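Quick note —
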Amino acid sequence: MKTILLATILATVPAGMAFAADATQTLPVAASYSWSGGYVGAQAGYAWGNARVGQTFAPGAFDDYGWGYGPSGGFGGLYAGYDKQFDGGLVLGIEGDYSFASVKDTTLYRAAGVDDPGFGGVLELEAVGSVRLRAGYAMDRWLPFVTGGLAMAKYKHTTIALPGGAAYADVEDTVSGYTLGAGAEYAVTDNWLVRGEYRFADFGRHPSTRIAVPSGVPLHDEINLKTNDIRLGIAYKF
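Predicted structure written out below.
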């Protein structure tokens, strides 16, 4: 009886070991997603900020004579970039974006702390864009990231006579500054990516010369602009 039992065990053990080895060899190994590659996408968002257009006819006039704005509104456009993923999960990239915008506000002219009901203004951001570096940490199909770089904004500032609202001077110009932000991206498939992002931009203080209508006389101001925005995007990765 003992001889039969021993023979059965000896016959079973190699078969069990072979099955275990075969099962180990055939188990699929999950592959990590790679963020390396180029991409193009579309985005839309909402922006808000604060701006001042102040006159410069005398030292200190900027703070006491001019228009204070709190522009807000939507924007939408395109972005494109390239990412490189390194061992350990670090992802570095470069990205550019450009969006048409309708971010604006209206207000009264204010002189030495007093609103002037006879004069108003309209400030509108017509387009925004940036060229930035990105750094993130890959968590398989998730990519949290930070970003920063050069920002631009095209604006139009129109001053109006009230109550009729006829324009008496306007200027269209582009200002530049810096932007910082953070967000997260998710690879829905190997090629389609979605993201959410927050950005702050500081464009600093720049000359802003309005041209009077119809005389053509230049009116010298300066503009100081800061914005915040939240944006969503979807991109195709090559």
